[in-house]
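Thread: 26Q complex, take 2
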Amino acid sequence: MSDETLTPIPDQVAAFRVAVLAKLAYSVGKDAEHATEHDWFEAVALATRDYMVDFWLDDERRTQRKKQKRVYYLSLEFLIGRLLFDSLSNLGLLDIARAALAEVDVDLDRIRTLEPDAALGNGGLGRLAACFMESMATLGVTAHGYGIRYEHGLFRQAIVDGWQQEQTETWLDFGNPWEFERPEVVYAVSFGGSVTSITDAQGHQRQIWQPAETVRAVAYDTPVVGWRGASVNALRLWRARATEELHLERFNAGDHLGAVAEVARAESISRVLYPADSTEAGQELRLRQEYFFVSASLKDLLRRHLSQHSTLLNLPQQAAIQLNDTHPSIAVAELMRLLVDEHELPWDKAWELTVNTLSYTNHTLLPEALESWPVSLMERLLPRHMQIIYLINAHHIDALRAQGLHDFDLLRSVSLIEEGNGRRVRMGNLAFLGSHSINGVSALHTQLMRETVFTDLHRLYPQRINNKTNGITFRRWLHQANPALTQLLREHLGDGVLDSPEETLPQLEPFADKAAFRKRFIEQRRQSKVALAALVQERLNITLNPDALFDVQVKRIHEYKRQLLNLLHTVALYQAIRAEHTTEWAPRVKIFAGKAAASYHQAKLIIKLANDVARMVNNDPTVRGLLKVVFLPNYNVSLAESIIPAADLSEQISTAGMEASGTSNMKFALNGALTIGTLDGANVEMSERIGLENMFIFGLTAQQVNVRKRANDYNSEAAIAASPRLAEVLLALRSGVFSPDDPARYVGLVDELTWNDRFLVCADFDAYWDAQRQVENLWRQHQRWWRAAVLNTARTGWFSSDRTIREYATDIWHALE
Ligand code: 26Q
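Output below.
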């Protein structure tokens, strides 16, 4: 994006050039003649970081002086992407940097692409954390993000013969210019061992944990700057290191291999991000990661609090800790342990402080994604925490009994311990009990939380559950990803659209009716489509027609997200284009991208199917260029920034009730794509704002899905029998038309759809087909389509993460003056 100063001030340009050249010489150790493009990237990033540091140190001084409340955002994932344009643009330096580099013959827009994505997250939840960090800095909320500095982020996806292959991701190979290593900020985090009970000098019973194993957590800080440099916050990520004494001792004793193994075991904690976005059978390393970063973060924030306020009694007034899903929920037990065992507070006081400080965000209702840990594992790895969890449970159940609640089923459902198939600790219930606020991420999701997973806890604590509908940062998803559209908006709405899009974007509505404006909007979209077509040509050697309808589904591959429904439609469309010559089909490009969890076989098969369908369709001359299918490998934040501005149609077609919110739905609408979707997650609120007439909503509602499931009488055989189109598609898949090398490849998949259609793909197929015909209808009425597209942009302001963060800060954290 070009920032305020359309013609950069020469002094600032010179200053930036000098700063970069100094970094190139004194930090990279090169002169301009010998510098590689990567050297330039590093020099520019380091120079940019300097600009942030001044603000940062000022902000920290101000927070201390004004005793501002601090927000701590605990998350195992921060899906950041690249930072160069984010930082430059928020500092108002983008045009200055571009001009400064041009003077030394370096193209900023080229070296931008050399930055590796920081992919420290799987998908929506991790990206939300990154959007929130940026919005908190923009709104001046004093915030610290806490997480793990994974050596390897989410795997790189290669597609080999149509199948996903995972490759190790190595984002730190060339170092990371944004971070500051803080070797002096280090905490010991322990595991295992046993707990003994002693009576201290005052006659109090105390529990002493004698751990078997200790690792060190070392801090790395990345500054995050808000829009127009409003404020700078830190993202503090922990790296696991072995305790030196330990391995030296073994090494000196001659056990060289043993010493190395010990180091590897300790350091494996921050080695790699778990590449699954729903829980798999409780893995010990995952629990170690969770406790590792929670323990280090809590010790760090308590130390900061004590040094500033010298008492822990005002913790909830000065600190708010937000748990991003249950992944950090061991914080409930760890905070209790620190307060009771280490700071010697009475249990009840400690509990009051804990509940008033912690709050928890739930991101999923899928039963398989609700975290629980075997009691035996917890007992072995965290024996003192297991005691504390039992004690919390006992106090809780006693309190309910004291209120006259004796209903066995109720007590069993709200317990922290799940009995049967081996006892397990329910992390959702632990997070709920230990927090004063539990929020969902869209109105529908929050309502379903009350009605399903947390019904009983909600009845006991009706004030706790609240909604905070997700949002996205417009700086990345509009300004950076789509500078042409941003420029157009500035011309018509003024620069206010950059600062307060929530108020300003609605003023775009009248322009939807102006042909001249629509023309500009169309031109801008075409530019983005041409750019995406070039990328597809380069990466896949597939030629796209930029005037075709770009129909896009990009997100993690999951059965509930129903990429399969989209693929069945693709096959149906393919068959229809070949057979129904009398119909006029609008040229269309189906674009897919997304990663599957490495162990999720069905998801990987769906990727293979997308590639099989693509090969078949793209090489069939009878399609006459009316349909192309593309699976773009290695979906990540940077690829999203290229795809989203080029989309005409956004696919948000999850089985209703299963997608907690979705956030790409908002990114697409903001950039003017029309949504085809179910009434799920935030689609519901989008439809209320954008208007049903400007979207293509279809399919069963969450309530209808629920009725079908409960009645247990859903039979997809009937749906298939009633839909010749669907039947024909399934027949083709089953018979191996798309997999001549392995005709039986999709037999299992078709059987599942026929006998056990858990995600109601068949039930929604005809409605989806019809909705797609409405899409084509509107697409052909060119001017009406683009009117709707403009209205999508105009009416999406509310989905800014600034609005979301303002709500968290006001209702949950009480952190904005
Ligand atoms: C848990 C335990 C062990 C291993 C992995 C996990 C794990 C990791 C990631 C479980 C879940 C996730 C990620 C979930 C996620 O991304 N949820 C999405 O969150 C978005 C932001 O709120 C929503 O918009 C999406 O609807 C929701 O699916």
